[in-house]
Request: fold
Amino acid sequence: MFEQVVTKLRYYSYNGLPIRALPYIGELTGQNVDKMQAHNVFVRKIPKEKFGSRELDDFFKKFGEILSCKVSLTDDYKSRGYGFVCFRDPEAA
Reply:
């Protein structure tokens, strides 16, 4: 049931604003920056309209299991046109 909830609530909106809800994953903490570097992909030139974190996740999940995925947003919740994808396995990245 936990996996169903995590999947359903991973990306949703509240009062019209986008929200990402991720389970705590210790390996993603700042202490493991060097270790996790090979797992991360920087994505640029993301279409700014109608392409958020959910769409980025949907696009990249064909390459492997995604731990974290986000499109960078401005203070007024508009896309900056770039984002990050963190895969469980470095080979997927």
